[in-house]
Amino acid sequence: MQLKIFGKGFNYSQDGPGNRLVYHLSGCNMHCPWCSNPEGMKPSGSEPPYPIKDIYNEILSSSPMFFEGGGVTFTGGEATLQPKPLLALLKMLKGANINTCIETNGTSPDLPQLFEFLDHLIIDFKHPDSIKLKQITGIGNETIKQNILAAKNYGIDTLVRIPLIGGFNDDCPLDFAEFLKTANAKNLKVEILKYHEYGKDKWKKLGLDYKMQNAFVTDEQVIRLKETLKSNQINIINT
Ligand code: SF4
To answer: Any idea where the domains of the chain sit in the sequence?
Structure first.
């Protein structure tokens, strides 16, 4: 079995705890106009697929670097679009006692099948209104909500990420709170990420049109969302 990967490298504490080897898996089923990795949105034909045995060996030989609770993280693109080789590799890694994490947009109905082989889950919750989410990214939030609730019930260490984006989701803190309070549990935390334009140059280099405009949010907007979530007993992490 093989995985298509468009990038990899070490990252400290951004993609799960500690120092982690992060693999960016090719292809995404959403098309967020702010995506910071647009090169990963399409499954590329030019990237050579990597046998999972080779990836496994690379991870094992990198394990001395997994300090402070580190390990391996699979992100994208969208990692769950290659479900069979990802599941097989996660099983091998758990057999070798490697700390595992995935970052996902949460749209795969099969996501809970991975929980048994994961130490950490990072899942986006981009918009509480399914219609608005679908208008902008192409996919609604029903499965995402189901997966967040499944993660809560399973007890897996879960970080729900809200990318706060002006003109998209910065006007509905109460709606975020209304759903997230149903997912409230010790194992589940929420992180708010302010809109940034780190991917803008990549869009241009790829010949793509970066359509986002005036999407920066203020510190006050972040505080407003945080305070709304906190007043609903939702665990927020400060980053
Ligand atoms: S879900 Fe993530 S990887 Fe996919 S397009 Fe959106 S921001 Fe990019």
So the answer is: 2-237
